[in-house]
Design a protein that fits this description.
The protein is mainly alpha-helical. It has 48 helices and eight strands. β7 and β8 form a beta hairpin. The longest helix has 18 residues. The N and C termini lie far apart (105 Å). The N terminus is likely disordered.
């Protein structure tokens, strides 16, 4: 061996040319070791200090050594950045790591003292190739190499690798090598800091390996705080292991991270030039750092070049999505901010103010608000809220706006801030905070500007719609009399909140007009969430007007609009689901009704509108009832009854009340709960007195009691136009009932006239439900006059074509109280004569009632009647 080689060996510390020992409790990151290393001739691991580069490669090379591969490991230092020193150290690494026959041949080589000698490198490669053993050369900390001749030698080596030799390089920055050629050939595999970031399972394993128990919540917080940076997690683990109060440590970790700061300044920032250090401090406050902002904060026109240099040097500077902006790793940013504060206590506030102004001028109001708040500039913050707050709420960022205002105590008593905060709280469904800000508003003088009057009125009415006195809010705010102003965003808010208020008053046409204009404004402003809410409300309003065709169209448009945006479970879609289910119910589409009712229930979380919540829950209970048997059917009817017995139901609109109470009576009578039906009738008489809706349910109850004459009398004022009509469907139901009642009494002409009136409204809307519910009774009337219905003949044909098994057909008929008593007596298995005696009626009367029970249940025997009654929840 030459003297040169002996000198090289003696000058290289043995630990630098050996695979580092792994910590006794090192975790194995299989995801990276197996998937990221050694698949191509050259692997470059490029990441900041403390990212886990060396540990990862050491773990992988230990596995290679166990397979019998040769591993030449060289940990580089600044002193190696000369040709002789570098090649001497590499020869020593090969001597330590390779097999004896290779070592023997390499021992005769002497490194070049100056420059780069291709023949020397080629000789090394030939010797290793002749060894025919898989060999790995690891160059750790290659960022120290900058000498042109050293780099040229490495380029030559990488370009002429034999098949048996592969190279792994670890660096804090991308080395100045000819890597583009390797990339083009597909010979380079890159591992970045993002690849090295710990995943949640890996972080969990790390803490488990260190015998530290960390809750899922705390683990997520640590990962977010460190962004998966290995050194940050390990420093947190060390601090946590030394902390007597781990809970307190987790709470204070974001504020007290001196160990992390010390590491960053010792390992990451120590080698920066003074001008780079100053640049980092001058630009450390913004979380997002566009190049132009960095230039303004630092006063340096070359800010982009500096940021790119720091990014490529892996100084925990990251590109923020595209090449136009950067961001500092959160731990680096916090360390710099702490250092900046120590240098000049006012410097962070000045930087926040400058950043707020820049973001405001460049159309980024959220960032402007964040920095104005952090900079404690109340005047600027109030100005930004007044100019941008409403648009941010409409754009789907109410939570950000609300949190910023909540944190700014200096503007808590200012009207613009309180108005925007109240609207933002209502938008996110936080009624406690909404009430707080509305309380602040009520303590302030009455607003004088058109804008302030409109915003305050909108907030008050929206809060009432979430559970309050809507009529009182309408009266106090005068929202129904507000005209459009110059600000279209304000006009949109007013109309969007005024529409449901109009509906509560029964002004459906006005509500639809408001919503149509709101839809135009939402689309013009590209407010997708407001557009979805408006589409859903249009479905509801047109549904309340019993325009099934329009309601279904609006509901389907809302559902399609939301689905393509991934908002299928949005609470804004609950109203549309309700109307999709309701129109399906009215058209007799049971499966569609059930599907959309279930989707509506899933979308309820976050809904703060009593009307919508009550409607969705009612429709779901109705869907369950339609498809259930036995006790489940009874439970669904009971749930429906409880919903409408609740005092909150008093806030429902006349339309929803009319629809729901009619169904409540039908469900109650179907399971024999005449008491529930009576309660419902009394309720609607109080809420909708003198209405066709009340007349219909009164007639339903009378009919269920077998009092047909009184039922006809109750219906006559409605069909003659002597009562208020909230729902056109109520007149359809009334006329269907009159049609079969008059037909049964032999008044064929009157029966036909009533049926024609019902079909006139029902056929254009495909309103099948009133006929489905009364099918066994209305079918004889239809059969008698088949083909005489003009333009409604197709609709009638559709009704006739419905497949209705015998039991389903009978399911629509209601047993009278006396028939229900007889049905319950059947369980005693007594002869008809004894049943008659026990009830104090004649045998013939008992037999008549018994035949009626069998017919209504669709059976022909006592046992069949008992079985069906139990299935239907009657027993």
């Amino acid at each position: 061996m030459s003297a040169g080689t002996l000198g090289a060996r003696s000058s290289v510390a043995t630990t630098r040319v050996q695979v580092p020992r792994l910590p006794s409790r090192a975790m194995h990151r299989t995801r990276l070791a197996e998937d990221q290393l050694g698949r191509r001739p050259v692997t470059l691991i490029c990441a900041a200090a403390g990212s886990g580069k060396t540990v990862l490669v050491a773990e992988w090379t230990r596995s290679a050594q166990r397979r019998g591969d040769s591993v030449a490991w060289l940990t580089l230092e600044p002193a190696d950045d000369k040709p002789y020193e570098f090649w001497s150290a590499m020869l020593e690494a090969f001597r330590i790591g390779c097999h004896a026959e290779v070592v023997a041949e390499l021992s005769s080589l002497s490194p070049p003292h100056d420059g780069f000698e291709p023949g020397f490198v080629a000789t090394i490669l030939n010797i290793i190739d002749h060894g025919r053993r898989p060999t790995w050369l690891v160059l750790d900390d290659i960022q120290w190499l900058n000498h042109p001749q050293v780099l040229a030698g490495i380029d030559y080596l990488l370009a002429h690798l034999p098949a048996c030799l592969k190279v792994i390089m670890a660096s804090r920055r991308e080395p100045d090598l000819a890597l583009s050629a390797l990339r083009l050939r597909g010979d380079l595999q890159s591992v970045t800091g993002g690849d090295l970031a710990f995943t949640e399972p890996e972080a969990r394993e790390l803490f488990t390996t260190l015998d530290l128990e960390v809750t899922d919540e705390d683990l997520v917080r640590l990962l977010a705080r460190t962004e998966g940076w290995a050194a940050g997690l390990r420093l947190a683990a060390v601090s946590l292991s030394r902390s007597a109060d781990r809970r307190a440590f987790m709470i204070n970790f974001e504020d007290d991270h001196r160990a992390v700061d010390d590491y960053l300044f010792a390992e990451v920032l120590r080698d920066l030039t003074p001008d780079l250090d100053q640049f980092l401090h001058d630009t450390c406050v913004p979380e997002q750092l566009p190049i132009a902002l960095a230039a303004e904060l630092s006063g340096r026109a070359d800010a982009g070049q500096l940021l790119d240099h720091l990014y490529r040097s892996n100084t925990l500077v990251l590109q923020a999505g595209d090449t136009s902006g950067y961001r500092y790793h959160s731990l680096l940013r916090e360390a710099l901010r702490s250092s900046l504060h120590r240098r000049d206590v006012h410097a962070p506030l000045r930087q926040h103010a400058a950043a707020a102004g820049w973001f405001d001028r460049h159309g980024q109001p959220v960032n402007a608000l964040v920095h104005a708040s952090a900079g404690r500039d109340d005047a600027l913050l109030l100005d930004l809220i007044g100019r941008h707050g409403l648009r941010l709420i409409l754009s789907g960022q109410p939570a950000r706006v609300l949190n910023i205002i909540d944190a700014a105590s200096g503007i808590a008593d200012r009207q613009p801030a309180a108005q925007i905060a109240a609207l933002a709280a209502l938008e996110v469904g936080d009624l406690v905070r909404a009430d707080h800000w509305l309380g602040v508003l009520r303590q302030l003088p009455q607003p004088k500007t058109t804008r302030s009057i409109a915003l305050r009125a909108s907030a008050e009415v929206q809060r009432a719609l979430s559970g309050g006195e809507v009529a009182d809010a309408i009266r106090r705010t005068g929202i129904l009399d507000l005209d459009d102003g110059d600000d279209e965003d304000v006009n949109l808010v007013v109309r969007a909140h005024r529409a449901p208020a109009r509906m509560r008053h029964g002004d459906y046409a006005g509500a639809v007009a408001d919503l149509r204009r709101a839809l135009v404004l939402a689309r013009a402003g590209h407010y997708d969430q407001v557009e979805l809410s408006t589409l859903s409300q249009l479905a509801g309003m047109t549904g309340a007007m019993c325009d099934l065709v329009q309601s279904r169209r609006w509901a389907e448009e809302a559902i399609s609009f939301a689905t393509v945006r991934g908002w299928a479970a949005s609470p804004r879609l609950a109203y549309a689901y309700l109307m999709a289910a309701w129109t399906a119910f009215q058209s007799g589409e049971v499966e569609r009704q059930r599907e959309f009712a279930s989707l509506g229930i899933r979308a309820l979380d976050g809904v703060n509108n009593v009307e919508v919540e009550l409607g969705v829950r009612s429709m779901h209970a109705l869907a369950v009832f339609e498809s259930a048997v036995g006790d489940e059917r009874r439970q669904a009817a009971r749930h429906f009854h409880r919903l409408w017995s609740d005092p909150r139901a008093e806030q429902a609109s006349p339309a929803l009340t009319g629809h729901a109470v009619a169904e409540e009576v039908r469900l109650a009578l179907a399971i024999g709960e005449f008491g529930w039906a009576t309660e419902a009738v009394q309720r609607i008489k109080l809420r909708l007195p003198g209405s066709a809706e009340a007349a219909v349910v009164i007639a339903e109850l009378l009919l269920g009691q077998g009092r047909t004459t009184q039922a006809i009398d109750a219906l006559q004022p409605a069909v003659k136009g002597k009562l208020d009509v909230h729902l056109p469907t109520s007149l359809v139901i009334a006329n269907v009932m009159l049609a079969f009642l008059e037909h049964q009494r032999g008044n064929v002409t009157r029966g036909l006239a009533a049926l024609e009136r019902a079909l006139e409204t029902a056929a254009p809307q495909n309103l099948q439900r009133p006929f489905i519910d009364a099918w066994p009774l209305i079918k004889p009337v239809i059969n008698t006059h088949a083909g005489q219905f003009g333009t409604a003949n197709d609709f009638v044909a559709t009704l006739m074509d419905r497949e209705r098994p015998e039991q389903e057909a009978a399911d629509g008929e209601v047993l009278s109280p006396k028939q229900l008593e007889l049905l319950r007596d059947l369980q005693a298995v007594l002869p008809v004569r004894e049943l008659a005696a026990a009830r104090g009626v004649s045998v013939n009367t008992t037999r008549t009632h018994l035949r009626a029970v069998y017919r209504k249940l669709g059976v022909s025997s006592r046992s069949g009647a008992i079985r069906v009654a139990r299935d239907r929840g009657l027993l």
